[in-house]
């Protein structure tokens, strides 16, 4: 019923005490604001009384997830969930999903590589979560860089997510909540200008139709260069109309459409100073950090590189409230995402960087289109069985994804024309400008070759059927149990037809994975008071072969098609408190995630499910208002990610019989997993019409490979904001990003290069509300 297609203290010790002691430390405050403590035998929880009105400028802490799969308020959900509200997105000046997620600790951005596309490559708690992005609860397939103009809020769910979303990583997932039509009339908009050619216009218009329907449209146009990165930049535009019928009645119908296009010159990053551990060139051994060159060094070619994307998503959402505690909802969605690019990767793997002071301009290319059709039906509501109260959600899901992918080929080619290979002892015209100097690379080199789409075409079709049930069981007002189970039937088929290139014929290739898997979650919640919870939870996730649907690193091949899904489990102990008259939400958690059958090379040289990975960590969060004038949003995460068993490696000399020995990388740190990461965004109303704010984003050293010999240094970045209300309809906001103009690297997952973050930039935005 569905169809989809794609192209183009240790800190842990401190956390234990914090988690267990927080209820005692905060209990006095709760009781001062609450009803009299219940007498012995009284089953009631002391209720917090909130008096007075919340000021208009105060940030409202989120009460519930927008997903109907969350069957309890966030306070009583035994899981780490961070909600990034629209206020924080606007205040920080975020214009993309990647910008907005910078406010959430524990998330790192991965760099693109040959098999990993350009786009939102997320790592959550150290695990690759590239395919774990959802829009209104439905998986958003296809590589892309997502915008924020049509986003109401962003929900980051930490830990195994498969009981909610099916196939997924052990780290978690991101759910984007879209703007929808409301029974209200408003005209909102903004116009912004800034440094580095920044121009942005948005509009958000909602109009009622009669007494029970409404229409809303969000529009965006954006253009900007990347501060400090030479010619890198681009433009995009988008429109997202929605219309809702029966919005105040039992049956509601929402029709929505989303369209966005972008065109840009993609960034290239800086290659690593390649470490040499043996041989005649030991004297030139690098330290594994990104090489030291000016920030604006760009190794791409303006005559060759480009990235064009287009996204279309249409949704029909029908919901009926039976009036007896039951709600039935059906959502059908069609989406198509295309991405075409030629993008220069400054490849360090050929030895040129340390031997010759040059870099090979490796051309990574992709022509991809992904189509998706998904249908979900969910029944949710409340029920009682004897003395037990249930809040439940159960449903079925069907989806079909198809990704068609190819690449570009160039004539005469992208190798060094002198050597006919990737060795770059020199650079410049004689090499066809395919080799560039490390210092002084010219992006405007007159590179001129013909380009065509490769006859090698890859098609991957993925079908999923799933059924799930989630229930929050209330035994008493103090004790709750959250349980969930989901069963998935996952089939993915790879088809590469026979093709001929350069007079060489390559045989057709076919592979298929048929996998069924069940995932579970269970969490017990104890509520010391109505404004608090302490929980202990367990959850699992499954990552089958071909998890990426043909558009990422986890591709389906004949080598892995018969493997079982990688299975992960997570244990978490945490607490959540709503304090200061429930205007400030505080959370703390300790957790451990394990992947017991990771795919690695086995002792016989084959790929098997014999590897093991683990991550243990600590997490703190704060969201809301400390006073009527002072708001905070941020957190801290400590992660200890280890590759416990990385399988075996062949230690024999070239040409000799294989000798398989345990991987020397056992015990190494996860790539893309900082031990420490912290974020903070805070604002203060200094005058009735003036609010100032600032924030930081801090991250410790991150490795780019399992060898742990290529890495990016840690950093702390600062931002600032000032907002002035001119009148009831107009406000002005100044944002300065990367206030100290810090040179740092924000994308590290490729073993060849690190992505360079933008330098200091400023923008002034006028916002209008009527």
From TrEMBL:
Entry keywords, A to Z: Cell outer membrane, Ion transport, Iron, Iron transport, Membrane, Receptor, Signal, TonB box, Transmembrane, Transmembrane beta strand, Transport
Q: Which GO BP terms apply?
A: siderophore transport
Please state the span of the N-terminal signal peptide per the UniProt entry. Answer: 1-28
Taken from the UniProt entry, a GO cellular component term is: cell outer membrane
Cross-referenced Pfam families: Plug, TonB_dep_Rec_b-barrel
How does the record classify its membrane topology? Multi-pass membrane protein
Q: Which family does it belong to?
A: Belongs to the TonB-dependent receptor family.
The protein depicted here goes by the name: TonB-dependent siderophore receptor
- What organism is listed for this UniProt entry? Pseudoduganella dura
Lineage here is: Bacteria, Pseudomonadati, Pseudomonadota, Betaproteobacteria, Burkholderiales
